[in-house]
Amino acid sequence: MKLYTRSGDAGKTSVVGGRVDKDDIRVEAYGTIDEVNAFVSEAISRMDPSRDKDMIRDLTHIQHELFDAGGDLAQAGKKRDYKVTAEMVARLEEWIDRYHQEAPEIRRFILPGGTSLSSALHVCRVLTRRAERRVVTLSQDQETNEEVRRYLNRLSDFFFAIARAANARKGHQDVEYERSGDVFK
After folding, report:
1. pLDDT tens for residues 126-154?
2. pTM value?
3. Torsion angles phi and psi, residue 166, rounded to 5
4. Alpha carbons 158 and 4: distance in angstroms, whole number
5. Interval 52-102: pLDDT, tens
6. pLDDT at site 44
7. Assuming Cys at both sites, which of 20, 32, 149, 162 could form a disulfide with 131, CB separation 3.0 to 4.6 Å?
8. CB 11: neighbour CB atoms within 10 A?
């Protein structure tokens, strides 16, 4: 089997239900999710396997779910069986709460960064926000699995929580945005 097909040379790609332009909003949406997934692997590569087993496990689980989300979004036309569910969103909320407890209380906006691991997780967060925006644009015009949008919204919160936990595990304090008032109460 060859890795190339030449079928996309004219600027079209296949989705479930037909072919679309490679810059179609549907392709943009699931392509941005693919970017998130690739950067999650970058974050995992920065983890200490003995200290961060739980993070590696959770992020690997998320990588599989990101494939599910991309697959759900690749379905054009007739509604199919979707893989991303409300239960996945609820589980993310549990994980957010768990990682949030590891970091010091937060009152103000913080600058993204800290350790190289936390920085990578913040990149995952902002890429997820971009993916969410692409899905919102797609859903305004075409049918989508609404749980994907909810999942991405919660996933960006997850990345914020786990990035702060990564800093806390290394004893690195978050840097507050200097001109921020108290926004988290």
Report:
1. 999 999 999 999 999 998 999 999 999 99
2. 0.93
3. -60, -40
4. 36
5. 999 999 999 999 999 999 999 998 776 678 999 999 999 999 999 999 999
6. 98
7. 32
8. 9
Q: How distant, in Å, are the alpha carbons of 1, 33, 105, 167, 179 from that of 182? A: 57, 32, 12, 21, 10
- Asked if residue 127 lies in contact with residue 39, where contact means CB atoms within 8 angstroms, the answer is yes
pLDDT digits (tens, 9 = 90+) for 19-32: 665 668 888 999 99
Contact 113, 175 (CB under 8 A): yes
Task: Decide: helix, strand or coil at residue 10.
Answer: coil
| Structure tokens that stand for 8 in this block | 């996309």
Helices and strands per DSSP (H, E), number in the chain: 5, 2
Token reading at 17: 């239900």
Pick from 134, 110, 136: which is nearest to 122 by CA? 110
What's the topology of domain 21-169?
Hypothetical Protein Ta1238; Chain: A; (1.20.1200)
Query: If you ran DSSP here, which 8-state letter would residue 176 be given?
Result: B
Contact 55, 47 (CB under 8 A): yes
